Amino acid sequence: MLFWHEEPRRKARIEIIPMIDVMMFLLVFFVLISLHVIPALGVKTQLPSTSKPEKLDVRTHAVVTVTKAGQIQLDGVDYSLPGLQTALIKLKQSGKDVDVVVNSDRDASVQQLVDVMDTVKAAGISSVAIASSRK
73-130: per-residue pLDDT in tens? Predict the structure, then answer.
C-alpha cells in the first residue's frame, strides 16, 4: 500500500505581541480623547498672571470661581454669596480641613473678589488662596 507523504499539520497559534500593541494603542487613544472631551468643572476664566507664582500644598480643596460677569460657582455649581456661605459651612462641617482656591477672572472687579473672600472667611475657613498663571 502506497502512502502519500503528508506534512505534519501545524497547530494554530495566537500571536500575542500584535494583540498587546493594539490594546496599548486603544488605551492611549481613549486616555487622550477623554482628557480633551470631558470638560473641567466650572466656567472658563482667564487667570491673572504673576511673575512668581507659588505652588500651594492643599489637602482637601474647594474651587470658587468668580467671573467678570459676576457669576460665582463652587466646584461647578452656581451660588449667590449667601448660598456660597451656606455651602462652605456644610463642607466644613463634613469634618475635613478645607482649603479654598479662588479662581477669579482677571477682569472681575476687586470688590467682587473681596466679597467672595469675606464670605469664605465668614464660613469659618481661614485657608484661602488665589489662583494665578505664570507670565
Answer: 888 788 888 888 888 888 888 777 778 888 888 888 888 888 888 888 888 887 887 7
Alpha carbon 52 to its chain's center: 23
Residue 59 and residue 97 in contact, taking contact as beta carbons nearer than 8 Å: yes
Q: 81: which 3 cell numbers?
A: 454669596
Domains of the chain, earliest start first: 49-134 (3.30.420.270)
How would you class 101 by CB atoms within 10 Å of its CB: exposed for 0-12, middle for 13-18, buried for 19 or more? middle
Question: How far apart, in whole angstroms, are the C-alpha atoms of residue 107 and residue 16?
Answer: 56
pLDDT at position 10 over 70: yes
The Cα 14–Cα 4 span in angstroms is 30
Which ranges of the chain would DSSP assign to H, the alpha helix? 16-37, 81-92, 110-122
